[in-house]
Amino acid sequence: MGGGSSPYKRPESVLVVVYTAAGEVLVLRRCQPPDFWQSVTGSLRWEETNPLDAARRELCEETGLGDGVEVVACGTINRFPILPPWRHRYAPNVTENIEHVFRILLPERRPIVLNPAEHLEYEWLPRAVAVARVTSWTNRDAILRLP
Length: 147
Known about the structure:
four-stranded mixed sheet, globular, Nucleoside Triphosphate Pyrophosphohydrolase, alpha+beta
């Protein structure tokens, strides 16, 4: 569940929005809960000191992308309540998560290799469709703020 000395997840995460020069946004459908669509996300491991390192790791784990991509910090940090489907993963006194937002601009679509333990499928969608598809408000905001 993340290593370190705690059996719980760290309440600090990354959100990485991958998009193309043509304005298409990559969205992933989680295995659980059903019909939960998102960009690349994941918690920092307890030993990770830099959210950028976590963003690069999660990008590779969830999409297979990594070589030759530039991960850009958006300068946005969100704070939000941890949703009920994930509360059991965190220490009992933890109710909020801090999320660091990143973006990756690709010249064109690239093949995606999903982690089947996390995601069932992916789609490249026009920005407006991606905004409507993703489940979390922080993900919608991040897509809307893309250059």
